[in-house]
């Protein structure tokens, strides 16, 4: 043992000396940058030059437009039903089935069972009516499908999308592309609602339920099982494995390192921490915190996010609304600038309309992850008998994430910059000079908030950290499900993944913003390729399941009205 410790010390001593000379954070960044550059170059290959147009963005936006048209604008048509589903208006038929409750031989007897205890109702009808006992037993058994409620699944998924993409990502978009990038973020968010609907419906439709009731779902399942149904077993298996690998990478990148990176930036600025190892230390603390939480699994994550997500979203939205209403005379000017600059951009280095469009689409896709398939992993755990019900719930995500929260952040930053605080376009990497000091990402948003809210640096630090932690714990679940798909469902394999996940928290906190976000973008967008294979093969299944769910709702209300 002594010799082993001596050898370990001998190995670590020069590393420690080198890290002191160079700075631990800088050393981690230099080691990570080549990895980031490699994946970014591979994933974002261009199909057009001058301006550069990556194929993955064409695929993502084109597919979102196709699904929007094919399903008849579900982002608008079914928005009300999506809200009612989250509210539990159709919970009875989702748990027990429409025909079993409201069909000709159903147990409802013309009564709306939404807010009635089904067990009590079953006892009453067993005593009063001669109904087949097998039907009653079936209704009782099928009420236990899934692990979490619609609201919990939405909260978990939203916590994976509503994160520092809304604070740092929006600031990065405006710093690079100017106010016009906001317009294209909103368009991408609206179109992304349709894609999210498709992939989350499939997530529930093709999920696996373990013997202990644990749910396993997501693109790796609907790709492999769905394509097998259509006679493409090998293609499905290969695409599912590729997705699982990229999803693990996404959980280490956009769902982890990018989050800890922005949390570290605001923490260091709040405490004016200049140590060369500050990032690594903050990352270690965050890693311990997240590590404790993720041991609990999806039910623990759902319980945490169910409370944290509404709190952090409301807190952040209130702050944005305060600034917006305090400067209400400038809101119309900000909106006008967003629309004008979307088609006639003036940001330094952004170039033409295509340039600002790409900046907006890229940041929106990173923020709401529609098309990446990640959210379908969380949504697949919902308690329901109708897969399309959760698809409708899921389309609310991009609306909340991009159309509402991202837009608010953008308007705050644009109002702040009416005074000419910085030049749109900056240095071309996402950094801008404010009072001669370079700021990037969440730092830009923090300066904008500080202009209007006293001690907002404390407030925004808390908000960024909460966004970061909630996103990390949700993405740890996404990555773990992919890890299980590849390596099995053993405890040892799970622990290996969780240790790797926590390691990337430290890497993200220590490395530079550009390296981390380039890697994160690459990993998130890489998931799009295998996921779209599944969506294009299986979207007719979604159409069938949507009609089935709408027919079930109609059957319920026809029975009640009669």
From TrEMBL:
Q: Which UniProt keywords apply?
A: Cell membrane, Membrane, Symport, Transmembrane, Transmembrane helix, Transport
Membrane-topology annotation of the record:
Multi-pass membrane protein
- One Pfam match, by short name? Na_Ala_symp
Q: Which InterPro entries match?
A: Na/Ala_symport (IPR001463)
> Cellular location of this protein?
Cell membrane
Where primarily located?
membrane
GO terms (molecular function) for this protein are:
amino acid:sodium symporter activity
Q: Name one GO cellular component term.
A: plasma membrane
List membrane-spanning regions. 53-73, 234-253, 273-296, 308-330, 342-361, 392-416, 458-478, 499-517, 523-542
Family note: Belongs to the alanine or glycine:cation symporter (AGCS) (TC 2.A.25) family.
Protein name stated in the entry: Alanine or glycine:cation symporter, AGCS family
Taxonomy, top ranks, is:
Bacteria, Pseudomonadati, Bacteroidota, Flavobacteriia, Flavobacteriales
